[in-house]
Amino acid sequence: MFLTTASMVALLLLYALAGFLLAKSKLVRSEAIPAFAKVLLYVCQPALTLYSFSKAEFSKELLINMGIFFLITFLGQLLILAVAYPFLRKKSRENISYRILHISLVLSNCGFFGVPVSEVLFPEMKEAALYCMTFSLGFNIICWTAVMTIVTRDLKYIKPRQVFLNPSTLSFAFAFLLLIFGVKLPDLLSDSVSVIGRFATPLCMLILGMRLGYTELRKVFVGVLQYVAVAVNQIAVPLLIFLALLIIPIDPAMKKLAYVLFACPVASNVLNFAELCGEGQENAASNVLLGTIFSVLTMPLMVLLIN
After folding, report:
1. pTM over 0.90
2. Which of 61, 82, 223, 283 would be a feasible disulfide site paired with 100, CB 3.0-4.6 Å?
3. pLDDT tens digits, residue range 6-56?
C-alpha cells in the first residue's frame, strides 16, 4: 500500500507539472485560472459525483452505511474547525493568512484526490468512490457556508440556501435519486459523464500547477503558517481520526477509507474558494501546493498505519 500510494500521488503531481509549464510558458495567463476553477467546481465536480454513484448498486445496507459515513466524516470536519477557532480568532480578524490557515487545517482533498486513490487502494470495494462523494457532501456543505464565512467574514453565507443550492449538493441529490430508483444514464451520456468526471482530478492538479507557475517559489517554501497547515491537516488530524475510529463500531473497510480520505493533502478547494472570494489566493496557493508536494511522503506514511 505504501508503494501504491506513493506511485499514485507521484502520478497526480505530473499533472501539476504540466500546469506549471503551461503557466511558465505564458500559454495560460494568471487571470484565466479562476475560470478553470469554475469549470472544476461547476462542471467536473458534479460529473465526478454522477460517475461515482454509477459504480454502486442500491441496497438498504448501502443507504445505512452512507448515512453513518456522512455523519462521522461531517462531524469530524466540523469538530476540527470548531476546535481551531479559539486559537485563531484574534489574528484572523485582520489577517487573511490566518483565515486561510483555519480552513486549511481541516479541508482535505477527499474528492479530486480521494476518488482515484481510493479506487487503487480498495479495488475490492465497489462503493469506495461513492463513499468519497458522501464525505465530499459534508465537505462541500462546509465549503459553501463556513469556509465562505471564515474567508469573507460575512455571515450571509450561513443560510439554508447555501447548503442546498450549490452545485455539489444538487448533483449529489440528483445522483442519489438515480441510485435509489435504479435509473441508469444512456450509454453515450454515461460515457461522457465518466470522461468529464474522471478529468476532475487532472484539472484540479493542472490548476495547482498553474497557480504555482505564477507564485514565487520562495513564498511557497519560506514561512511558518503553510507548514503548520500541512502538519496539522496531513498528520495530526488523520492520527486523531485514526484513534477515534478505533472505538466506533462500523465496518473496518469504511474506517480505513475514512482515515485515508482525512490523510489526503490540503484540499484544492482552499484555493478554489479563495479565488471565488477574491481574498487570500497567495496564502491558499502556498498551503495547497506545499501540502500536495509533501503528500508524496505523508500519504504513503499515513497509509502504513492501516497496512
Report:
1. no
2. 283
3. 887 888 888 888 999 999 999 988 888 888 888 888 888 888 888 888 878
Question: What local confidence, expressed as pLDDT, does residue 156 receive?
Answer: 76
Exposure on the CB side of residue 15, measured as CA atoms within 13 A: 18
The three grid cell numbers given for residue 28, joined into one nine-digit string:
495560460
Packing angle of the helix pair 96-104, 268-277 (nearest 10 deg)? 140
CA-closest candidate to residue 120, choices 294, 3, 204: 3
Give the phi and the psi of residue 266 in degrees, each rounded to 5.
-50, 130
Distance CA 74, CA 69 (A): 8
118: nearest Cα among 303, 304, 305: 303
With a CB cutoff of 8 Å and minimum separation 6, the contacts of 183 are 177
The residues that bridge with 67 in the sheet, in sequence order, are: none
Question: Which residue type sits at 237?
Answer: V
Residue with cell 504555482: 212
Longest dimension (CA), the chain: 54
SS3 state at 266: strand
Q: What are the residues whose beta carbons fall under 8 Å from the beta carbon of 63, sequence distance 6 or more?
A: none
Q: Phi-psi category of 280—alpha, beta or left, where left has phi over 0 and alpha has psi -120 to 50?
A: left
Contact (Cβ atoms closer than 8 angstroms) between residue 288 and residue 108: no
Which grid cell sits at 83?
Answer: 476546535
Q: What is the C-alpha separation between 148 and 166, in angstroms, rounded?
A: 13
The 10s digit of each residue's pLDDT in 152-206 is 887 777 777 767 777 778 888 898 898 888 888 888 888 888 899 888 888 888 9
